[in-house]
Design a protein that fits this description.
Elements lengths: L1 E5 L4 H11 L3 E5 L5 E3 L2 E3 L1 H10 L17 H8 L10 H15 L4 H12 L4 E4 L6 E6 L2 E4 H7 L8 E5 L8 H9 L2 E4 L4 H9 L2 H10 L3 E4 L2 E2 L2 E2 L4 H7 L6 H8 L5 E5 L6 H5 L4 E5 L5 H17 L1
Parallel strand pairs: 1-2, 1-9, 2-5, 9-10, 10-13, 13-14
Antiparallel strand pairs: 3-4, 6-7, 6-8, 11-12
This protein binds guanosine-5'-diphosphate (GDP).
């Protein structure tokens, strides 16, 4: 069994690749970017992974359902309501379904499993916790929810800090702990280290399980050279006092991962990664299209058998 810790747009590629090469994978998803909007509970990373595994994901945007329309948010705008978050009309059904079940007393784990089944996702998806954890970005204009920083403000403000509200009280889901204990390999997807994996590592009970499993945990670097493959990871890493490089990623994961897979072009960095007590493995870590996703997945699944 392989478990993968995932964020959203970067992670979903490897999640899909692994699902194409192995039947027995479980995805543990970030919940720090979840947000209440219009009375609905929206879980962007869980939805990206669910849509990705159900062949529903809009590949161009990297989020939402392909071919979706946006009449709901357009109408909200006309009615003078804030409408900065892109909620597609079909996507909206997911949030209504989820919120209805939560209000009936189901846990986020139960809802996530049910939604994945209903939508046709091919692997098990679990939220890291059933408790609410919120990633908060500090800027010179004050604190704001990660989604407000990223979507509403277009990631423009300077970032002075990143915090995970509620993480100190949150407990990992029961099934999350079980799969980490049982898995022959736990993969940390190429994800935003601070904003996608950070909220999970901030949950004490989850972090402890990973520390125990460390020799079975392999992370894939989202940074090549001194740049992320895409997105705002550099801003968050700098704010967290990390060097923007595979070595910076290693320093962040050193207690929870036994090895880090880096790009072949970053081989000079291997020595610095090993100084953190981690093995540095080199592979082609850019995933372009299903073939690239499956190639990296096969490499990682192979590591799981060794
Ligand atoms: P988010 O929730 O949308 O931020 O998505 P994730 O946390 O899942 O992933 C974002 C990270 O994935 C970014 O830091 C990218 O640099 C990284 N990324 C995206 N595509 C790739 C890829 O093909 N290979 C690698 N190694 N990293 C990638």
């Amino acid at each position: 069994m392989i478990t993968i810790l995932a964020g959203g747009t970067g992670s979903v590629k490897l999640v899909r690749g692994l699902a194409s090469v192995s039947k027995d994978i479980t995805v543990i998803c970030n919940v720090g970017d979840n947000i209440w909007l219009y009375g609905l509970y929206v879980c962007p990373d869980i939805d990206t992974v669910t849509y990705g595994l159900a062949c529903l994901l809009d590949e161009k945007r990297g989020w939402g359902i392909k071919g979706d329309t946006f009449s709901f948010v357009d109408q909200m705008k006309r009615m003078g309501r804030p409408a900065w978050f892109g909620l597609g009309d079909r996507d909206l059904a997911t949030h209504v379904y989820r919120t209805e079940m939560l209000r009936r007393g189901k846990s986020l784990t139960e809802v996530t499993i049910a939604l994945a089944k209903t939508l046709g996702a091919t692997s098990k998806i679990l939220p890291a916790t059933d408790d609410e954890v919120e990633t908060v970005i500090s800027t010179p204009r004050g604190e704001m929810h990660l989604q407000e920083f990223w979507v509403k403000r277009g990631a423009r403000p300077a970032v002075t800090g990143v915090a995970f509200r509620g993480a100190d009280r949150a407990r990992p889901g029961r099934q999350v702990v079980e799969v980490i204990k049982k898995s022959e390999r736990i993969i940390i997807a190429p994800a935003n280290p601070v904003s996608s994996i950070g909220p999970m590592l901030a949950i004490g009970g989850l972090r402890r399980e990973l520390v125990r499993a460390k020799e079975r945990v392999v992370a894939v670097s989202p940074i090549i050279g001194s740049r992320p493959v895409s997105g705002p990871a550099a801003k968050y890493m700098k704010a967290a006092g990390l060097e923007v490089s595979p070595a910076g990623v290693a320093s962040y994961y050193k207690e929870v991962a036994g090895s880090l897979v880096i790009a072949k072009t970053d081989w000079k960095m291997a020595g610095r990664i090993e100084q953190f007590g981690m093995e540095a493995a080199r592979a082609d870590i850019i995933m372009t299209g299903p073939r690239g996703e499956a190639r990296l997945a096969r490499y990682l699944a192979g590591k799981a058998r060794n």
